[in-house]
Amino acid sequence: MSALHHELKVLIVDACDKTCSPDSITDDEILFGPDAPLALDSLDALQVSMALQKKYGVRLSDSKETRRILASVANLAAWLQAQGKAGAAA
Fold first, then answer.
1. Distances 60 to 10, 19, 82 between C-alpha atoms, Å
2. How many CA atoms lie within 13 A of 2 on its CB side?
3. Which of 1, 34, 66, 85 could form an SS bridge with 56, CB 3.0 to 4.6 Å?
């Protein structure tokens, strides 16, 4: 597991106040919805979005794009890398 993927899993668990281990989240599992193992909802998406903004200085403003980016840890990591923000945590 890459350091970025682990960092994002920790961020998600912390931002959403989940009790699971970040290591229990797989890179490609769906994060949101009733069928997702974490069953994150729109409030969790807002929390994750705010945590990403604070840590990486990125904004997720388009709801359709946000849904795609936050679909999985792998999607989020790829998006951050494309933004040039991977490994640039403040």
1. 19, 25, 14
2. 12
3. 85
* Alpha-carbon dihedral sign for residues 52, 58, 64, 68: negative
User: What pLDDT band is residue 1 in, cutting at 50, 70 and 90?
Assistant: low
13: tokens are 């668990």
Task: Show the domains of the chain with their CATH numbers.
Answer: 3-82 (1.10.1200.10)
Write the pLDDT tens digit of every residue in 24-47: 999 999 999 999 999 999 999 999
Taking alpha carbons only, the member of 19, 22, 23, 44 closest to residue 33 is 44
pLDDT tens for residues 37-90? Answer: 999 999 999 999 999 999 999 999 888 899 999 999 999 999 999 998 775 443
Phi, psi of 32, deg, nearest 5: -115, 150
User: What 3-state class would DSSP assign to 3?
Assistant: helix
